[in-house]
Design goal:
CATH topology of the largest domain: Aspartate Aminotransferase, domain 2
Oligomer: single chain
Helix content: 40-55%
Strand order of the largest sheet: 2-8-7-6-5-3-4
Number of strands: 13
Distance between the termini: 38 Å
Number of domains: 2
CATH class of the largest domain: Alpha Beta
Largest sheet: 7 strands, mixed
Bound molecules: pyridoxal-5'-phosphate
Structural class: alpha/beta
Shape: globular
CATH architecture of the largest domain: 3-Layer(aba) Sandwich
Strand content: 5-15%
């Protein structure tokens, strides 16, 4: 099978499994316990936190472990906005982009529904980019937080995060970015990015599902979402997932060390894959920015087909990928991300996303490109009524 759905999830790396194993077996202590097993767990957790902080170029105390990217996004959007509103009730607006993951979008909608916030949605251009002008157009004195993703999960477009964060800071507004898809492929130095908060997810990086991180600047007040024993410096209560934290830290450290070379290698393969698909399916429409895109994502619409049918045909040909709307679990409505890019609903229904792990090799992508031409051809033939 050729696995081209790495933006959905990735297998756990062997080094990661080996690093976490002791904390699932012999060293199984609770980091809050005052005996040697507890102390070993606490020190593993501290090591994991330091590992993440090193990659992000922040302090250990600014790293909060969560149950994944969704929780990290929820904690950032709700936690920062609510804490700011508590200090100044006039801060009752949040800004998100039109192509955020549901973890950010639904957190903003919750603030609107339950806490009386207004949600300002900053539009994207036809390539899925937010411009500084567009952002400045929606910022105002009541804005409590801006949350704009680093790289999009459906089309792979990368945002000019440093410039957008600087525009928010001009008005003293904190800036959060969802870096779940960017991690492993793009630089993650939070000082260079200039962000106040950043979310990560372990399972996109070769760690298990159910581990995540929120970086948040030490002085940023965050209203916790999970109350209890005060773990994670009160930002996120609950007995810590020590093995998950160790795994995420190891996966992040490994992918960070490989990031520059992997990004170069895989973007070359991605570009050849895009050319091969466009060569054999001339009407294939690349979605997202032509070059400001993740090395690991090639996404297309195939007008005249249905994305779901192309996926099924591809799976018959042993190629696994996903439709553009995969993130709206179980829904066959056109992807809101593609609609926000100005793509017509009937074209958005034809979307297919190919996303690569860092282990991808050229021959797999050559086979996949040939399979795409076959699959699209088969779906077209089925869709066109036969004469006679
Ligand atoms: N943000 C983005 C951009 C994502 O792609 C995903 C997962 O697909 C998430 C957040 C949610 O992460 P998790 O699956 O760890 O909850």
């Amino acid at each position: 099978m050729i696995f081209l759905d790495a933006a959905a999830t990735t297998p756990v790396r062997r080094e990661v499994l080996e690093a976490m194993w002791p904390y699932l077996s012999g060293e199984f202590g609770n980091p809050s316990s005052h005996h040697s097993l507890g102390e070993a767990a606490a020190s593993a957790l501290a090591g994991a936190r330091a590992g993440v902080a090193k990659v992000l170029n922040c302090r250990s105390g600014e790293v909060t472990f969560t149950s994944g990217g969704t929780e990290a996004d929820n904690l950032a959007v709700k936690g920062i906005a609510l804490a700011r509103q508590a200090s100044d009730p006039a801060l009752n607006r949040v800004v998100i982009s039109a192509i955020e993951h549901p973890a950010v979008e639904e957190s903003a909608r919750y603030l609107e529904r339950v806490h009386g916030f207004a949600v300002d949605v900053v539009p994207v251009d036809g390539n899925g980019r937010v411009t500084v002008d567009a952002l400045q157009g929606v910022l105002g004195p009541g804005t409590a937080l801006v949350s704009i993703m680093y790289a999009n999960n459906e089309v792979g477009t990368v945002q000019p995060v440093a410039e957008l964060a600087a525009a928010a800071h001009e008005l003293g507004i904190p800036f959060h970015t969802d870096a779940v898809q960017a991690a492993g492929w793009l630089p993650l130095d939070v000082k260079v990015l200039g962000v106040d908060a950043l979310s990560l997810s372990g399972h996109k990086l070769g760690a298990p599902k159910g581990s995540g991180v929120l970086f948040a600047k030490g002085r940023l007040r965050i209203e916790p979402l999970v109350h209890g024993g005060g773990q994670e410096r009160g930002r996120r209560s609950g007995t810590e997932n020590v093995a998950g934290a160790v795994a995420l830290s190891m996966a992040l450290t490994l992918s960070h060390a490989e990031q520059a070379s992997m990004a170069e290698r895989v973007s070359g393969l991605r570009d050849r894959f895009i050319s091969a698909v466009q060569g054999s399916v001339p009407e294939a429409m690349l979605t997202g920015h032509p070059w400001e895109r993740l090395p690991s994502v090639a996404s297309f619409c195939f007008p005249g087909t249905s994305g779901e049918s192309v996926l099924l045909e591809l799976e018959r040909l042993d190629v696994v990928c996903s439709s553009g709307s995969a993130c709206a679990a179980g829904s066959d409505a056109p992807s809101p991300v593609l609609l926000a890019l100005g793509i017509a609903p009937e074209t958005a229904q034809t979307a297919v996303r190919f996303s690569f792990t860092s282990a991808i090799i050229e021959t797999e992508l050559e086979q996949a490109a040939a399979a795409v031409a076959t699959a699209v051809g088969r779906v077209r033939n089925l869709a066109t009524p036969q004469r006679g």
